Amino acid sequence: MIHYNPKSWFSLIFHPYNRQVIRKLLPAMAGMGAFTAGICYIELELLEQPMEVSNAVHSLLGFVLSLFLVFRTNTAYDRWWEGRKQWGSLVNVSRTLALRVREFTPSQSAHEHFNEAIPGFVKALRNHLRPNQPGTAIPPSATEFSDVTHVPNAWAQSMERQSSQLLAQGELSAQEHWLIAQNIERMIDVLGACERILKTPVPYSYSMFLKKFIFLYVITLPIGFVATFAWWSVPVVMLVFYILVSVELIAEEIEDPFGVDENDLPLDALCDTIEENVSEIFARN
Question: Is the N or C terminus of the chain more exposed, i.e. has fewer CB atoms within 10 Å?
Answer without folding.
Answer: C
